[in-house]
Design brief:
The chain is an alpha/beta fold. It has one domain: 3-Layer(aba) Sandwich (Rossmann fold), CATH 3.40.50. Helices cover 39% and strands 20% of the residues. It is built from five helices and five strands, in the order E-H-E-H-E-H-E-H-E-H. The mean pLDDT is 91.
């Protein structure tokens, strides 16, 4: 089935949060594709171009920042939003240094989250 909804990839190892992100994105007019790890995302990338990648910092294997590093090294220009429950100046600075488009706390307001995604 063809869709004109923008594809948003989400990487988070917390299944409940991953499901919640999927629901919020669908309600916001996007088509989410959900991954439980950075490795899963790299092994099975979406079949069509991703409008934005939302990635958790702390994952079970490769971290969200490591994924951002690898994608950047590969020349990816997909906007990346880094989500974290453990926000610190060090994480924020590193994420922006690596070229992320935004850093949000996992407790961020849904409207703030969707507004950032829509800004790309």
């Amino acid at each position: 089935m063809m869709t004109d909804r923008r594809l948003i990839a989400v990487v988070d190892d917390d299944t409940d949060l991953l499901t919640a992100f999927g629901r919020v994105l669908r309600a916001g007019g996007f088509e989410p594709v959900l991954y439980r790890s950075a490795e899963e995302f790299l092994a099975s990338p979406p079949a069509r171009p991703v409008h934005c990648l939302v990635v958790d910092v702390k994952l079970g294997g490769m971290s969200g920042l490591d994924l951002q590093r690898q994608l950047s090294a590969e020349g990816s220009t997909v906007p990346i939003v880094v989500m974290t429950a453990f926000e610190s100046a060090r994480i924020r600075d590193e994420a922006y240094r690596l070229g992320c488009a935004g850093v949000l706390d996992k407790q961020a307001d849904i409207d703030e989250f969707l507004a950032l995604i829509r800004s790309f």
